Amino acid sequence: TDRIDFWTFGDESVRWLGALLFIIGGTLRLWPVFVLGKRFSGLVAIQPGHSLVTDGIYRNLRNPSYLGMLITAVGWALAFRSGIGLLLAALTMIPLIARIHSEEALLRAQFGSEYEAYCSRSWRLIPGVY
Question: How is the chain split into domains, by residue range?
């Protein structure tokens, strides 16, 4: 959309903000991969040796990798000044929230009151909001 000036907005400062958000989001997306190691999976499943991680990056936020993915998507859209990119980033929330609910049901079944206690003191996706 940037080359043909379709649904574009902003100026070079928007591009730089987007690039910064892309880097921050990418870091936040990958950090949990290193924290969880082999337990990090694309599947909604309990992994062998699975334990509930509630410290470090997970202390206040239950889904830092998903937040990183959203920040990366918004950063990409801003870097290209793309209104369509922002719309697509927003639409990503629909399947993402459905996946989060599936994961939470699985974790509740596996860890019970330990997971409930963790939920009561942490944010699901966006600190201070959700």
Answer: 12-39+54-120
